[in-house]
Specification:
The protein is built from 11 helices and 27 strands. The protein is an alpha+beta fold.
């Protein structure tokens, strides 16, 4: 544990001068006739003794300040992480350690042959490295699959073969989070290898908390861990190991314009006793692939393609936002997406011992009680191939916010829930953001790292929190940190799409900032809505300008 000593040339000139006066005075008291104001005696003894004394006094003072929570909040860089952790431990607050991103990868083979990949088989994706943590054996027949790491090779729709495995990032950090369908290529490909890609989002990678970030959570460390008010509720949630990585929360309760559930009575007044707890468990929603059974309907699209339908139950992906893609089962990524026709939301309270008071699909939106009926057109089939009522399996990419069901089950528990209220856990209303801008560089300058800019900009947007605005100036500040001296950033186009709880979409676009509308009647305000931006949704154009002169 340490406070970094200041360099001698960085010491306060005023403090050094005061120390020189003090040293000179002490010498003069014992040697009145000795001139210490100049000459070799001053330069080699008085000055350097005063300089070192000033440095020691400054170090002691900084250490004392570093033991003060107020001083650390004012200057988080005052002390190293060990010293800050030591101070915060007195308040039962721990820094969130970074975690390694993990995810599933599909390996596509040209032949149905047995393949073995050992522990620490390395993969690459977007310049980042991942590895297997155990031995995987892909088997051609189901009878050969005997252990948890054995994988059955299955045929794909395009005549190839596929098996899956799990990989882990080589280091911690959010930069290792990649999107579903990103190419994840083995450094040493196995026999019959064709291609490989992520079949899930890699979203679990996090960077260790900075001093600034952990100090912001200080109130949670000293608060009671109860479901009583906003601070104590946040402290309660993060005190549970499974929820310690939750990014942010927002609570709507009695008296808030966004609260309608406490008006479920014959009286047109708010009776209280209800809460909406918006929980952002990841910086980005997670996309998972689910195999679903669809039913052929009697109706067709305008173009004549058959329409199919499937349901998403409350347990399929609690807190889900959208169906991002639908494809024939085991189809390669190249076959593309099928056409989404409609997405109709409902709700299902189930048979739980206790459930929140919900009376509409809008109230249930983005909760663990939300359901949906999805209709889509299969453009790969003729309408005469299957009759109405026929069933087929498809793969659907479903985007959702993790932990919504788990947190809801926790707060519903009789031993934990507030005895006078019910709390409905919801994923935040999503505002999906895209950013576009041009970087102008001189012809003699090296082009900036576009991938690094994309990641930094998306990370900055995802860290905005429940404040309701994204500013172009903030994005410019981030981008400028990656640019050569003479480069510049052009106008920034900010585009946002809010998916309202009722299923409608509202679009925002501006070159200065986008702002969440104040629409509490639709459950959309800055207190309920979060910005989401993927690195792939940051579009950077590099143009070369003619050097001046």
């Amino acid at each position: 544990m340490a406070v970094t000593p200041q360099a001698l040339d960085a010491l306060s000139a005023e403090l050094v001068a005061a120390s020189i006066d003090e040293v000179s005075q002490r010498i003069a008291e014992d040697n009145p006739t000795l001139d210490v104001s100049r000459g070799v005696f001053y330069e080699l003894l008085v000055y350097y003794h005063a300089l070192l004394a000033t440095r020691l006094d400054t170090l002691i003072n900084d250490y004392r300040r570093a033991r003060s929570l107020l001083a650390l909040e004012q200057d988080p860089d005052l002390a190293d992480t060990d010293l800050v952790d030591d101070v915060l431990s007195n308040f039962r607050l721990e820094r969130k350690a970074g975690t390694a991103a993990t995810g599933s990868v599909a390996i596509i083979l040209s032949n149905n042959i047995t393949v073995t990949l050992g522990r620490n088989t390395f993969f690459q994706a977007q310049g980042l490295r991942y590895r297997t943590t155990q031995v995987y054996s892909a088997k051609a027949e189901a009878a050969q699959v005997n252990t948890a790491t054995d994988r059955l090779i299955t045929p794909t729709a395009d005549g190839r073969y596929m098996f899956t495995l799990e990989v882990e990032a080589l280091a911690t950090g959010a930069e290792y989070n990649i999107e579903k369908n990103t190419l994840v290529v083995p450094v040493n490909p196995p026999p019959a290898y064709v291609t490989s890609y992520a079949i899930t989002d890699f979203s679990s990678g996090t960077t260790a908390e900075t001093n600034t970030a952990v100090l912001k959570r200080l109130q949670e460390g000293i608060a009671a861990k109860t479901l009583s008010n906003r601070v104590t509720m946040a402290a309660f949630l993060r005190n549970i190991d499974a929820y310690s990585r939750i990014v942010g929360t927002s609570i709507i309760g009695c008296g808030d314009a966004e609260m309608f559930r406490d008006k479920h009575s014959i009286f047109p007044v708010a009776l209280g006793g209800r809460a909406h707890w918006y929980v952002r468990s990841e910086y980005l929603p997670v996309t998972v692939q689910k195999t679903i059974t669809a039913v052929r309907l009697s109706e067709n699209t305008i173009a004549g393609q058959p329409i199919w339908q499937f349901s998403i139950s409350r347990d399929t992906a609690p807190g889900f936002y959208e169906v991002r893609a639908i494809r024939p089962k085991n189809a390669a990524v190249a076959l593309g997406k099928l056409l989404l026709v409609s997405d109709t939301r409902g709700y299902d309270l189930g048979t739980d011992d206790f459930v929140p008071d919900i009376i509409s699909a809008t109230e249930a939106a983005y909760s663990r009680y939300q359901t949906a009926v999805i209709k889509f057109a299969d453009t790969t089939q003729d309408s005469a191939t299957y009759s109405a009522g026929a069933t087929l399996e498809y793969d659907a990419d479903i985007q959702y916010m993790p932990l919504i069901m788990e947190v809801q089950n926790t707060v519903n528990s009789r031993d934990i829930r507030h005895h006078g209220a019910d709390c409905l856990i919801k994923a935040p209303v999503p505002c999906f953001v895209q950013i576009s801008f041009t970087v102008y560089k001189q012809s003699n300058e090296t082009a900036p790292d576009v991938a690094a800019i994309q990641l930094a900009v998306s990370s900055a947007i995802n860290a905005v929190g429940f404040v309701g605005r994204v500013y172009a100036s903030k994005i410019q500040d981030v981008v400028h940190g990656f640019l050569p001296t003479n480069s510049s950033v052009g106008a920034i186009d900010i585009f946002g799409r809010i998916r309202y709880p009722d299923g409608s979409n509202k679009y925002l676009r501006n070159s200065e900032f986008i702002q969440i509308p104040d629409a509490p009647e639709s459950l959309v305000t800055y207190r309920t809505t979060q910005f989401f931006c993927r690195a792939e949704d940051v579009f950077v154009t590099i143009e070369t300008a003619i050097p001046e002169g």
